[in-house]
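Sequence in, structure out. Go.
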Amino acid sequence: MDGIHDLGGMQGFGRVPHSNNSLSYKPVFHEDWEHLAYSLLFLAADGMKLFSVDELRHAIERMDTRYYFGSPYYDRIVIGTATLLVELGVIKQQELDDMLGAEFKLARPYSSEGRQTRTNRTPLEVGDRVKVSDAYVPGHIRMPGYVRGKEGVVLHRTTELWPFPDSIGHGKEALHEPTYHVRFRARDLWGNAADDGLVVVDLFEGYLDKVNTAAADEAVKPAVIAEQEKVHA
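Output:
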């Protein structure tokens, strides 16, 4: 989703404090109740099969902006999970209010119906040059903004097929498709001020179009010829 929920992050909020030990899950939870929030999420999503993780992500994206910024990470998980449980009729708003002793503020209703992926497409292959869609999506999306409209090269295609997030994140039935590891030049993403490095991003097939390299070569020929004539003038 655009704005503060962009998968690629958003600048202007300072450094992110990070002290987690990747070899242990314990430091992930800073307060005793936080692991219960995570357990509630996976009980509902995986154990009871009530909703998908993408639906939870979008429920959190639907939180009021001020409420979102004022809520710690695991608070957002509780609010997102509670929102979906109310929307699905598993629990009532009044029950939450009674337990809290005040209004339990849920996320806002859906403002977008999402979209389906494109069908009947030829799978991309390793080595294909691709361009990322630059279309604006007014709801849930799993594509970082900094790769929109950019070109890269496919390094890997997953054998597993996954539900398209732009659909399932809105509670809709989703078509399944592979994801691809796509390599980009850092300077193609952020300009010449960036390091001369490479960035690999995992992207769903529905976000990608194969670049016709032959057509691209034809398109740049006039510019190349003009540059050569300038050199030899």
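Check: Strands lie at 129-132, 151-157, 162-163, 176-177, 179-185, 198-204, 208-210. The chain has two domains: 3-100, 129-219.
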